[in-house]
């Protein structure tokens, strides 16, 4: 299938919101995976692309989906804590350094691991390279530094569901609001 661009940036890196049969958001999937789910009749398109973009093959034309829903319900195991990943950490901290507010490029342990600090949400923050390098394996008190934010565990179902990124499609908002509640 080839894509006719109806939006800026095309469709190659586009993601689609995948809903469970009960309309609960499960995750985001690449456009290719979403199309396969629809063509194999495992999912249906709930919302198409707002600009009306279409995918064409020799025999079929299909609107680019924004939100799809599975036909069968998938049971999702409940996790007590949101998994600590680099992507989720950067999202929690808004891609800003916890020490100087510049653009964060790396992560830092507030209490260094070499001094017994754990790799947990409450001890890890986003950091720019310069601050991370200056801090090294020292404690904040030794440097006279303070954190601009208090590192906490993210709360809400959407932290577990959306692979760490929200692509900003306005058609996702009603489903995301349900997940956050």
From TrEMBL:
<dbReference type="GO" id="GO:0004519">
    <property type="term" value="F:endonuclease activity"/>
</dbReference>
<dbReference type="InterPro" id="IPR003615">
    <property type="entry name" value="HNH_nuc"/>
</dbReference>
<dbReference type="Pfam" id="PF14279">
    <property type="entry name" value="HNH_5"/>
</dbReference>
<keyword id="KW-0540">Nuclease</keyword>
<keyword id="KW-0378">Hydrolase</keyword>
<dbReference type="InterPro" id="IPR052892">
    <property type="entry name" value="NA-targeting_endonuclease"/>
</dbReference>
<dbReference type="InterPro" id="IPR029471">
    <property type="entry name" value="HNH_5"/>
</dbReference>
<keyword id="KW-0255">Endonuclease</keyword>
<feature type="domain" description="HNH nuclease">
    <location>
        <begin position="84"/>
        <end position="133"/>
    </location>
</feature>
<protein>
    <submittedName>
        <fullName>HNH endonuclease</fullName>
    </submittedName>
</protein>
